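ingest -> validate -> predict -> emit
validate: passed (alphabet ok, no gaps, 356 aa)
predict: started
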Amino acid sequence: MRLCCSGSCKWTDPSTPNCLCFPSPPFRSAPASAWSSGTSAIPCGTRDLPRSARFVGAGLASLAAGGGLGIVFTLVLGGATTNPVLLALAKAGLPVHIIAGLVGWLTFTAMGVTYRLLSMFMLSPEPNGGWSGATFWLGSSALIVATVGGIAAILLEGPLDVVLSCAAAFAALALVLYGREVLGLFRARKRRILELNSLMAGYAFASLLAAALLAAALLGLGKLADRAGAVIFLVVFGFLSGLVLAKLYKIVAFLTWLECYGPVLGKTPTPRVQDLVVETRARKWFVLFFASVWCATGALLVDAAVAFRIAAFLMLVATSGIAVHLTLARRLSAVRAGFPIGVTRPPFLFSSARPS
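emit:
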């Protein structure tokens, strides 16, 4: 990988597809510099970079910005500095820090990864061209406005709420287009019968939609600041955690199949990937998980502490049940023939599969 950090790309030849150009940041604040550099890391000679990689790149840039603000908070709260610029960031930068970490790093990265995973597991054509690029650019614009613009507003004593409102408008448009593309992936799938991982991913997307609608409703009622915790909880556990658990259910089985049956493929009868799991038994744990998340969100909205604790406990129970099924898949417990002869048993906690 060749990097250009001088502000202008030195390698513009198309034969250098892995060149990344990092323009100079607009100002010297560490978090802003991280975002300016990261979001500008667009391949100079590669226009066909996979969409998922672009989302992940923007997510990593957000991680750098959020980490930079975290360092600022640590220095200020630890009494290690009295720099007025850092003091101003520490005083008003918490919303920007949350957006960079939760929205940029976690949510935006997850959005990008879902394009690849949904296409692969549902046998759907990955969307390209047309509206597909607009989702990325609108989302990136929202993150740039929120982080770079937010930091600038803090340092220049400008209206931070106006900047974040503009970022929210970009994010809302990106979310609408993202939902349209996800729906298109489900409609264009060649695997007509949805597997459990794809079905539960639909529940996760429903949670993201519910979080967006809830945030809009609370904003209209003027109660978003008081009930922001419920929205964040629904995004973190309903969308992010739910999506991860759903996809892990397929990924663990897939990697285990590669490790155990890849070496003997064509030499001995091999089961399907789906034969490594028992979806009818695992379904109830996923349903319990999402139902508990939604109930916990409702409890947060009405300040029902006891109900929230019960729902959180049920989330733990459901997650434990899903973990048991992941363990059973790793141990080939659902395969009648058991472990194939002549193959080394794979490690339990990490995969030894290697790309060909």
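Residues 26-191 form one domain.
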